[in-house]
Amino acid sequence: MNSAYHRRVAFPNELGISTSRQLQNTPSTQRPGLIVPVGSTEQHGPHLPLDTDTRIATAVSDVLAARLQACEDFSWMVAPAVAYGASGEHEGFSGTISIGTPALAELLVEFARSACRWAARLVFLNGHGGNVAALRDAAALLRYEGRDAAWCSCVARDSDAHAGHTETSVLLHISPEVVRQDELVPGNRAPLTDLMPAMRRGGVAAVSSLGVLGDPTTATAEDGGRIFAEMVDGCVERVRRWTPDREGMLR
Ligand SMILES: [Zn+2]
User: Fold this and answer.
1) Member of which family (predicted)?
2) Which residue of 108, 194, 211, 213 has the smallest Cβ count within 10 Å?
3) Is 62 inside any structural domain?
């Protein structure tokens, strides 16, 4: 699996396009779509790296592009990831770098205004729940301006909230070498709805000193493969259907 996204400095794709000239010479009817992974840089407990969400969004984007290529004429490229997001709830844990919702929304708007000068359409592939408000704001404005921009999140059924079974399993599948297996400790396993009032006041630190919501000790690579496939399948379906709502979310 792809675990080398951080070395990415260009647009990798199966179309063999790497230069501006190649894009320039593409007939306007064959302009590619652009998939933009959007992650975060935030604490993920003692066992997962700060770039966990960015890794997941990028890995899903790569497989999504390949799957879409295989099933239709329209071609897709994957952009280098936006690796910073809105992670205010993780402030207080070293390593977290949050740019907040307004700055992220503005970044996404300017990104898409620029990219849509040559890309036929654009989808932000989101790997972090805290980014949703910015994605909604940005996509609503972009669509109002007449740009064909949308977003969709990496989601799976029965996921736990943060650095627990779900994310740890997915990382064991896509980047096993970065999971610190000797640091797996159960976090706060209470339902998110119960934790929200305290979290609104004091962030994740108020409910888990470890920064873990869920239980990573049950994670397996096998389950990660299943969850990852579910994330990819959901995104393939929604991107193929391409029915964004008013705020650009693909249904
Ligand atoms: Zn995460």
Assistant:
1) Belongs to the creatininase superfamily.
2) 194
3) yes
